[in-house]
Automatic annotation (TrEMBL):
The organism's place on the tree of life at top rank: Bacteria
Domain Digeranylgeranylglycerophospholipid reductase catalytic residue range list: 193-263
Record GO terms (molecular function): FAD binding; oxidoreductase activity, acting on the CH-CH group of donors, NAD or NADP as acceptor
Record domain FAD-binding: where: 4-173
Cross-referenced SUPFAM superfamilies: FAD/NAD(P)-binding domain
Species classification: Bacteria, Pseudomonadati, Bacteroidota, Saprospiria, Saprospirales
Protein name per UniProt: Geranylgeranyl reductase
Matching InterPro entries: FAD-bd, FAD/NAD-bd_sf, Geranylgeranyl_Rdtase_fam, Geranylgeranyl_reductase, GGR_cat
Amino acid sequence: MIQTDIAILGAGPGGASTALKLSHLGLPCVLIDKADFPRDKVCGDAISGKVTTLLHRLDPAIMARFHGMSIQSDVWGMRFYAPNGKRVEVPFPIKSEAGHAPGYVSKRIDFDQFLIDEVRRRPDIQLHLNKEISSFKRQETGWRLQTADGDFTVNCRLLVVADGAHSRFSRTIAGLEKDTAHHAAALRAYYRNVGDLSERGFIELHFIHDITPGYFWIFPLPDGMANVGLGMRSDILAKKGLNLKETLRWIIEKHPTISERFKDAELIGKVHGFGLPLGSKPRPISGDHYVLVGDAGHLVDPITGEGIGNACYSGFIAAELAEKCVQENDFSAARLQAYDIRVARVLGSEMALSYRLQKLLAYPRVVNFMARVVAGNQRMMQVLSRMYADFDLRLELARPWFWIKMFFTGKR
């Protein structure tokens, strides 16, 4: 039996980030995952500047090791395709620490293994893989976690739940049930030799008429590979009666412009589906002696589908609060409410804005109008470039009057 102040369930980006932050704060922890690593994780594979900024500030040597590898492609901007086919390229001039790219695309099998290797560098993190917890028992001083065979038991005062979108603890104990209006279904496939990929490392978002407010994506990877996928909000998907896999196949094989780019492309492996619990609905993400991190806390961005950045950010917040809880010997639900409050302040406003934009992008004519405003409007292009790091500018994008003003400014 293991006795610890802090146990983390799930060793993906959220759990690994929590453990690394705790270690740098001088707090030992136990990190548990049901899988062995390296292991694949179905995802869009995009890594935002949130992740790299947090890791660099934690220890610049972590990102130095990351940049010394060849598991990532740099992201310097985005290509947006409106339903009418209009293409708008938005560069990201904002550089991260040490002048590196503001974002990356890296297969999760590689990036998650990188984080596990970083965890293994820290002697105060006990890493236990291949341990599937089947029992959660509430005790006076915290939680008891146990495998089905009873051979592995952990008693902890604080449980950090970071075991992803299908977290049993989140669903059955914390009460975060799936809500199709705040959930997305997505598919991911790996292709080689997709045509006309950006030489400047731009990722692509295609807003196709029949799947808005969802989108089709192409994210370039190293070695001529690309992460290709399609996602849509679950309730809208059901309302439209679409088969996501058939829709993805149609786009790749028959879409008037996209199919040409796939004529020489090769599908590597299978098409895999995954669910995204969106952060567009406020939910309680803590309770007596526990907090929910990342996808387990339904913290996926409602418009981009990004989960890695919010998982790492919420993990850092959980670790900083855990330090105070240990010092105060207080892991009560009342004390841990501070976690909900800070996550809402730091991430909640972003996700609320994304939800507003998601609803705006549900109308193809609106997306076409927005693309028309941006095309050839240098002032608008500068605004979009700066919005990557400026929340106040992103807030403007959800206001119709902003687009009307920019339209007339552009005409002049």
